[in-house]
Design a protein that fits this description.
heterodimer, A: about 450 residues, alpha+beta, 3 domains, five-stranded antiparallel sheet, four-stranded antiparallel sheet, B: about 375 residues, alpha/beta, GMP Synthetase, Chain A, domain 3, 10 helices, globular
């Protein structure tokens, strides 16, 4: 049978594609044949789940009686991917698709193997009550997590592919009834115009979506909490999930979103009010305190109570540098400590904090390099930074206090007031996907879920 | 081009940062300041019509917890005016004199008999002196009083502040007068300011404040003794802790009257104020007794107290009237309640020396002080 031997030959396209993928060693180009029937497979072993491949593509081949049956079997596979031009097929192959050639028909079937599809423990914003498991590094699993918590036909998953070198999939998730259409349009436009060679995770995607290149304050919220996601979806916000990143981006956001912990919803009214007050007090303390120390000790000691003024003056005896240098160095020192303890594995970081915080702090006071009031201020600042529930704002605030410190160093308490005013003006001027950043959301929770305007 | 401008920017910002290390004279840390806590003013010994200014400076030092006593430094200088003396004192110390925490002004009793405006003006004009500073008269001299370091004074606390404004002790014997109040009353027609008198004991280990001085216009002063101070203070400032002792028929009762309310009316006969009707309500409990008491007889004790205290108040009012002094501010009230064009103060000035007082005292004892 001349035609039979022809059938044994893989089609030209397959060979071409294989050629383009080589010399990678995980390429598999194989031919299944039985009773004169032949099918050609092309896939990348590292991207494909071989058990599923065996079950869904290879085994049926030996069970069907004709190639037509096999072709229609493949054709009706729900995992089939639309075939476009050659380049797209290549990318699809790298994603874990299998190209099957039956006679002259081609089928692109998705048999992805994702080794990291477990749902992860929440580490960034843990709460006592509420969800304990977050998203997954696999997009499908993450979407599954959301879908399983929000059973509503209006929930939309809009997947697309990043136009960078990694060709990763991302998904826009929103509720089409409540979504803010203006923001959705804007996000889609920005995603289309995204022009970065390589996007690694939702963290940097979020920055690129920001609109402005350099920004101290985050314009999107990064979270790993599914309950936060569901809360925000139902309130009309848009979620962006990048494949391979266990964090989701929420947009648009206002400043006050960063000060909300999901725990607030799980506590009683007064308790959550108290914790919210506590949190804002912490925010204020960690922004203002260092500058306030400089302003009061060096410009207007009259603000203190007399006893405190004397105590502060006493504790500064022998400190060689002016107060702002002292504050600056101690803040720097605390930043080192925080930075070091974040990057280190947790058993070592405990040691680092102890050595750095306790021993160095005490020694610095003993050596009269800094006053002990300063140590109190700095530790208070460090602790209250961690009161802010969302990390990104915490980082922004860490930068902010240096700005205020500089203002106060030059202009005293008036400078502090002007600096604060400047920050408020800046925030009021800022936008996150068409929403004013300092917008107050004084609404009842019930009402919040009903409107589309986030 | 862009790289060059970027380098320029970096260099500029580094220079700016470096310049912040070179803090010049404007930047004064708290340890370069001396906190003046009390100012004393005496008549000068060497300069005619001059003043001797004494500063009590609280010295901060390292281990406050370990030290048993606060440390103070004293600076004295004479000058023709207070400001001049302080300017000279600035050359006696290596640090900035900071008056922001100066909360008590102690004035020699003798100085109060002269024109006050000359030296009080300094405190009102100087920006860092707070108008809520306490003003007090000193006996025998401001310097002596300033140099008293009471045994009860704790480190990093200044006992001069705790006496007044009910910050520390609360007693009806202690009159509190703030700088703003003193100045206002001094210049107002129809009210005379009252200053507490600060004294010390023989060993100079205690400060004693239980008398007061009424400062009239034109250098007229009148001392109120402890009892009169107590009545004045409890009536005008509603000072708490008022107690009164009744002695009758071998019965000794000490009443603790914690609520004292007073209001008065000025009655006129035509254009002329003729009578001041003063209603006083006091309530409290029996604090001490030498005999068992019956709750049924409380109204009897009320009556006893009423009669006795009415006499005391009348005595105080007549004493002040005799000297033509008016710390209660009756005149001010009268002026405020009449039209300005009628010149009520003139009428008041004429009428006050002969005005009648009608005192209606009501004492309400709530209990005998013991539970039966």
């Amino acid at each position: 049978m001349g035609s039979s031997s022809e059938k044994q030959q893989p089609p030209e396209l397959l060979l071409q594609l294989a050629q383009q993928l080589s010399p990678t060693k995980d390429i598999v180009q194989t031919t299944l044949h039985v009773d004169g029937m032949a099918a050609h497979l092309l896939y990348l072993k590292s991207a494909v789940d071989s058990i599923v491949l065996q079950k869904t593509i290879i085994q049926p081949f030996f069970q069907v009686t004709s190639l037509d049956d096999y072709a229609s079997y493949l054709n009706s596979d729900p995992n089939q991917t639309e075939m476009a031009d050659e380049q797209t097929v290549l990318v699809d192959l790298t994603k874990g698709n299998v190209l099957v050639a039956v006679e002259h028909r081609f089928f692109l079937l998705e048999v992805r193997k994702v080794g990291f599809n477990e749902v992860q423990q929440i580490t960034l914003e843990p709460t006592i009550h509420g969800a304990q498991l977050g998203l997954s590094e696999s997009l499908e699993t993450s979407l599954n997590v959301i879908r399983q918590r929000y059973h509503k036909p209006s929930l939309i998953f809009d997947t697309m592919q990043l136009k960078d070198q990694s060709n990763r999939s991302i998904a826009l998730v929103y509720d089409k009834i409540t979504v803010n259409p203006r923001a959705l349009q804007l996000i889609k436009k920005r995603l289309d115009n995204l022009d970065f060679p390589l996007i690694l995770s939702s963290g940097d995607l979020q920055l690129y979506l920001n609109g402005t290149k350099k920004s101290l304050f985050p314009a999107c919220l990064l979270t790993e909490r599914p309950d936060r996601l569901v809360y925000n979806i139902s309130a009309g916000k848009i979620i962006i999930i990048v494949d391979g990143s266990p964090h989701a981006v929420i947009a648009p956001v206002v400043f006050f979103d960063f000060m909300v912990s999901m725990e607030d919803l799980y506590h009683g009214y007064w308790i959550s009010i108290l914790t919210i007050i506590l949190r804002y007090a912490g925010l204020l303390a960690c922004v203002i305190l260092p500058a306030l120390y400089v302003g009061i000790t060096s410009y207007t000691p009259d603000v203190f109570r007399t006893e405190l003024a004397l105590t502060v003056a006493a504790s500064r005896i022998g400190v060689p540098y002016p107060s702002f240098m002292e504050v600056f160095f101690m803040l720097l020192f605390i930043e080192f400590l925080t930075e070091a303890s974040i990057r280190l594995p947790s058993p070592i970081s405990a040691t680092a904090t102890t050595v750095g915080g306790l021993i160095l702090g005490t020694a610095a006071v003993e050596a009269a390099l800094t006053s002990n009031i300063m140590i109190i201020v700095v530790s208070l600042v460090a602790v209250s930074t961690f009161v802010i529930p969302i990390n990104e704002l915490g980082f922004a605030v860490r930068g902010l206090r240096f700005i205020l410190l500089i203002y106060t160093t030059f202009f005293g308490l008036a400078g502090l007031a002007i600096g604060l005013l400047g920050i408020v003006l800046f925030l009021a001027n800022k936008e996150s996907f068409g929403e004013s950043y300092l917008k107050f959301g004084w609404r009842k929770r019930k009402k919040e879920f009903r409107t589309g305007e986030g | 081009m862009e790289a060059a401008s970027r380098i320029k920017l970096v260099v500029l910002s580094i220079l700016l940062l470096c310049s912040s290390i070179l803090s010049a004279c404007a930047f004064k840390d708290i340890d370069r300041r001396l906190f003046v806590s009390v100012i004393g003013i005496d008549p000068a010994e060497k300069i005619e019509n001059g003043f001797k200014v004494t500063l009590k400076i609280a010295i901060p030092f390292g281990a406050i917890k370990q030290s048993s006593r606060p440390t103070f430094a004293y600076l004295s200088e004479e000058g023709e005016t207070v400001g001049e003396a302080i300017r000279m004192l600035e050359t006696h110390v290596d640090k900035v004199l900071e008056l922001g925490h100066m909360k008590t002004i102690v004035i020699n009793e003798e100085l109060l008999k002269d024109d006050l405006e000359e030296f009080m003006n300094f405190f009102v004009r100087r920006g860092d002196v707070q108008m809520i500073a306490y003003v007090t008269a000193a006996r025998p001299s401001a310097e002596t009083i300033l140099k008293v370091e009471p045994n009860t004074e704790a480190p990093a606390s200044i006992s001069f502040f705790n006496f007044f404004g009910e910050t520390g002790t609360e007693s009806p014997f202690i009159v509190t007068t703030y700088l703003f109040e003193f100045r206002r009353d001094y210049f107002a027609k129809g009210i005379d300011p009252v200053l507490p008198i600060m004294e010390t004991n023989k060993d100079h280990t205690e400060l004693i404040v239980n008398k007061s001085l009424v400062i009239g216009k034109k250098g007229k002063t009148l001392e109120l003794d402890s009892i009169m101070t107590k009545y004045y203070n409890s009536l005008v400032h509603k000072a708490s802790g008022f107690s009164y002792k009744i002695q009758q028929d071998g019965l000794h009762l000490l009443l603790n009257l914690d609520v004292v309310k007073m209001h008065y009316k000025i009655l006129s006969e035509g254009e002329r104020p003729s009578k001041i009707v003063m209603h006083i309500m006091k309530s409290g409990v029996v604090g001490e007794s030498n005999k068992p008491l019956s709750p049924k007889k409380l109204s009897e004790y009320d009556k006893l107290a009423e009669d006795a205290m009415t006499k005391k108040v009348r005595h105080l009012l007549l004493y002040l009237q005799e000297e033509n002094l008016d710390p209660f501010g009756f005149g001010l009230r009268y002026r405020a309640s009449k039209l300005h064009s009628a010149d009520p103060y003139k009428a008041w000035e004429e009428a006050y020396p002969e005005i009648d007082f009608d005192i209606i005292m009501k004492v309400e004892l709530k209990s005998t002080g013991v539970t039966e």
